[in-house]
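User: ok so my PI wants both of these folded by tonight, can you help

Assistant: No problem, let's get them done. Here's the first:
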Amino acid sequence: MSKPNFTLAEGQPVSDPSISTTLPTFGGGAYTNLGDTLLLETLAHFNRERIPERVVHAKASGAWGEFEITNDIRALTSAKFLNGVGKKTPVLFRLSTTGGEKGSADTVRDVRGFSVKFFTEEGNHDIVGNHIPVFFVRDPIRFPSLNRSHKRHPATNRPDWNMFWDFHTNQPESVHALMHLFGTRGIPDSIRRVPGFGVHTFKLVTADGSFRYCKFHFRPTLDITHFSGPDGTRMAGANPDYHNQDLWNAIARGQFPVWKLYVQTTEPAQAETYGRGLFDITKVWPHKQFPLIEVGKMTLNKNPENYFAEIEQAAFSPSNMVPGIAMTPDPMLQARMFAYPDAQRYRLGVNYTQLPPNRAICPVHHPFERDGSATITRNYGGEPNYVRNSQSRGAPGQTLADVRHTERIQQNAALGQNELSVGEEDFVQPRELWNRVFDETERRQWVSNVSETLDELPVALRQAVADMFSKVDPRIGQMLAAKASNSSHL
């Protein structure tokens, strides 16, 4: 098979891409010239070959795969990719740390972003969640501040535990997520063993318009295992791309990782008596009350051929929903439905949906969004781009029946600043995690993990951390105080 000849980007032939055109002088010097298109294009492209990295979730690994239905749930949803045992749908998977930049280490204590894009016959559907089942805040206006507190100090340009704990002690609704973060699951030892949670509450809608609320869960078929803090730190120094290498090598040798997808569901009538835990993402739905229902399995079986093109340019958003799955009155979900596509417009340009990892496999006809930088389609030719025109080649799509039940506005509700204040309810599930899920070894390790972050804190902030966790269980505050006392004598 003959090799292709080197050319410029516009196709003109190049004799040798490693040599510039110069005018020699004595002593081995030379003058370059503006007529050397190869040199100028090479330098100009090099200056522009980086795009803005994600503000959060910048460091990631990814792969291609397929999703197969193992349990037909057409009684729960009309979404076609979830109907029919044996049905397969192509997927793109991405798992990331949250706080670190692109060059940071994989094996740090951090929440992992867990994203899956389903390329369905009705358009792309994304599940964009985390590797722990709850989140830190429930008011979306706090989301930027949460992430700023986990990143670099504006003066020192270093991660700063003072910022971290100052934020969380002033937003104690985050205590449940903190219990998970500083437990053993805070440092996964392999992407192939990481669970994924949709976190938000969604709706599964049937063909007749009725619906149930639901949550999505991915569980790896391998055991969920983790690094200890010291092992994670050592690996971060020895191989900061360890997770990436582990996933890539497993797929390359044919040991394809598999996750099973489950849903939890509840009827609207039941949901209305459940309380604010229905849409509050700092809380979980107990499995005893809302058992897991198996849906299918996801298998990753193909590494990217080019990381930048296929993973770095991948754009995920919880707003990408197909018919049969719908949004709910979760304020964090609604805010993310704007924020995520807007982040992609900033990073990739307004036409990011035309890029290969984001391009739908079903027919797309939306002439009312066109033009802008990096348009790589025919741009709908001469078809008018205003609605209700008489020359359009498009036709109205088939839509589902109206949803029969919608959420009711609270009686006497008024538009205003309606904060969900922190109360005893916010400490119930963290207390269950501490008392019923953690064993004594995990409790002691959890305290040790938190204590390591408190050494440089001012006394008042250290006490505020202990006071916050004492509301989960008084013993936590006592154990943190004992650790601090022992450290002060070293």
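One down. Here's the second:
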Amino acid sequence: MSLAGPEPEVLVIGGGAAGLMCALTAGRRGRRVRVLEHANRCGKKILMSGGGRCNFTNTGTTPANFLSANPHFCKSALARYRPGHFIDMVDAHGIAWHEKELGQLFCDESSKQIVAMLLAECADAGVVVETSCTIESVAGLPGGGFRLQTSRGRQDAASLVVATGGLSIPKMGATGLGYELARQFGHAVLPTRAGLVPLTLSGKHLEHYADLAGVSVHVSARCGKARFDNAMLVTHRGLSGPAILQVSSYWEPGKELLLDLLPEHDIQAWLLERQREQPAAELRTVLADVFPKRFAQRLCETWLTSKPMRQFSHGELPAIARQLAHWPIVASGTEGYRTAEVTLGGVDTDGLSSSRMESNIVPGLFFIGEVVDVTGWLGGYNFQWAWASGHAAGLAA
């Protein structure tokens, strides 16, 4: 038994951001396209993204905003499908949007509008979308092409696009199917781990912060050469917030993680100025001018000495300044895929064409989106990779 309707030329496994973009692009070329989505609706991660408003792109997208074993791989697709191209589609559908910060664009109303737009574009391009369709097996056909056995019957096609996503947020239906298919067809899969994810603390490191849960501090988080200035949020289990989520993609156990707790200040000059102007004020009072009060008090109770500013010697304040600018965080791990926004690693780009996203091993086989070893920063970059890689494959599949 095969699925109803004319036999497709292109099968897309996965009805998320990359899969739908690929499908509508191929459909516009006149290709007969069918999307197979195992969930009961398409675009579940789109729907939950950006607090329900979908951070659908970032106007400042460059290849430097992505992590990959091959940092050059993403350049071709990103150059050919830029944020402006997606914004044009959003505008054509009358979807109101706004820039929040740092080039991040969000819907004014709801992420449902982005999913509806993609499905409408698919429908206009003649794409058939099948939901609640589980893939049972995939095989290459002797003369080329592919045969899929699904929960809704058999399906053959000349081109197969794997847009299954990564392992992040399993409650949204994430599985490792894409990696299994890659290996089945001879592709290497690089080790995967959770990215854009809160960090956990343990032991005394957790005790020092845990009762500050809910406190937010603007920091610069550094790991190796990566540096991100943004908010850090203390949680019951560790640290989160944009700065921590960003740096988490670069951090691994054993790597040094440092915070500049006052990135917008010359801390030494500021402390010396406070000493001159508020000699009777205690350090914790001075720090409470630039930190949440509870955080300032904890700094002084646990790590620093609080006494009137006049009592600090010539060498003490510079030492405190260095401590605040190079604040060590000893993370025990991450919250894992449960809360991770993305999956690092994945299908090795060495086996793929950077311009077509097509396998160099099996003609007609494509891998796009998060399943590939290309991972963006927080702030709309991963959606832009989904649009760009999906578009590249859609032009070739």
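The chain has two domains: 10-193+343-394, 198-334. The two ends are 25 Å apart (CA to CA). Good luck tonight!
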